[in-house]
Amino acid sequence: MIFTGIDIGSRGTKTVILQNDHILASTIRDTGPDSVKTAYSAINATLKDTGYTLDDINYTVATGYGRVLVPFANENISEISCHAKGINYYYPSVRTILDMGGQDCKAIRCDEKGNVTNFVMNDKCAGGTGRFLEMIAEVLNLPLSQIGDEALRSQRSTPFNTICAVFAKSEAITYLRRGISRSDILAGLNDEQSRYRKRFFHHRWYC
Amino acid sequence: MITLGIDSGSLTTKAIVLIDNNIAGKCVLPTGEDGETSARSAVSNCLTQLNLNPENMNSIPVVATGIGAKSLTFVSQHKAITTCLARGIRYMLPQVRMIIDMGAESSTVIKINDRGRIVDWANHDKCASGTGLFLQQMAKLMAISIEEMSTISFKAKSRPEITSTCAVFAESEVISHIHRIPPTPMPDVVAGIYCSVASRILALCKRVGIEKEVAVTGGVALNRGLINIIEEEMGFKVLIPENPQLVAALGAAIIAGESAEKGIYR
Q: Which domains can be identified in chain A, with CATH numbers?
């Protein structure tokens, strides 16, 4: 039996093909403006080296914010439920998932079977999302893939007082002009983002 | 008596000189990197306008307000921005009971009574939504100036809803409006942006309860297009003082005069 899962996210589209509970193939690509087109090209790219075609797939579940736009999906399921099931595949002992996506951030509680028991979400503000990191990488003139390592080289993190992407961007520019290193700026931003997430989830969880 | 008021904002520094309670000199400068330097040059600029020697700065009572006030070393006193705005608006438009101050990085709503005392206030400075910086970013995105934005907004035929609160997400919404087939006309997009700012401001006003007359201050008050939409949303006309961005500095200068008379300092 061959099953596929396709996650059309706000920034990236992810596809996985499962054969007898084993991952046969997977791809990640940018979502782009046309989700239907992206869905087809993503599934075809994933199938490419497997020797199967779209007709061989027994069942497809689409998830993510663009899930309704997948023409070949048998079912649409919210990314929250899919996250819980997915993490259960890898780590059945996990009970809390922190999902940090392109344009939102969620915390999900799940049980031993991978069923969702509770979740909180921030999709109102770009603070602490992938989008935020993209903006900062651009300001610091670094490729997105390098900002993690760069932050770890920091000697002394620079304090940031805001989680707002717009304010943080102008603060980062000010620090750059003052000659503060990119790694210290990144470390400061990471500190503030972590604090913010912790505050946000704690507050929402116990409300 | 000569007194000075400084409002050290996040984007601009404003200074005002009062001579016997009359506005004698004023100056607006970009704040730049260092608040102290720009505050000093704003003050020097005001004093030279009046043929006064800037060296005499130390003998004049100075009150500072705004986000950068605490870092200024040459001032006699710091005052909260709300206090200064209330005092400044009472001088310019005594009939006002509610001030909407729209700055570059924050919005504040202040309710005052008939004696000019603050009754209640609410403020938003956590994020860029609904601030001057938000408008600036949108102008940059559409490659037009803030002034042009204001002018074309009057030609809007409809107002597409910009649903995102966050400036970053609103930007994506605006981009999709521009690239839509057929594209949403530019004036309509601008009107949509103004509507989203107006609704943010209105929500802040409702937190303290709207009371007439309402005045709008701060640099954003110079944006006629936005004011027009705020007035529509409110359902009545608002008052815009002359030089709306200088109201807090004016209030600071008035307070400097009062304190000097009481002999509090210098």
A: 2-77 (3.30.420.40), 83-123 (no CATH), 130-201 (3.30.420.40)
